[in-house]
Design brief:
It is built from 6 helices and no strands. It has about 100 residues and is mainly α. It has one domain. Helix 2 runs antiparallel to helix 3, helix 3 packs antiparallel against helix 4 and helix 4 packs antiparallel against helix 6. It is globular.
Length: about 100
Amino acid sequence: MGRSFLDAGYVEEAVDTLRDLIESYELRGDPRSIDMTYWYARALELKGDTAAAIKLTARCAMELQFPRRAGTNQASARRGAAVGRRDWTFLRGLLCFCDAVRR
């Protein structure tokens, strides 16, 4: 729903929705939480909070580069197999976002 708000141009609603979703989500570092954090960062950037957006984007990149070790939660086994084409595409998007923010 947060992405829908963002796509429709309702940035404030997207920020609030994504923040609440991330706070209530139980897992950290799994592909879904990284996606939510990425879109939250995008919403913050559109809102004008560039510093917070950069911080969250860096956290996403770190989670993709250094995933938590197996056994820390239920998603660990799936996460080990999830590093692949989708994650590299996502990381490329993060890098483009960082380049755009720096300009």
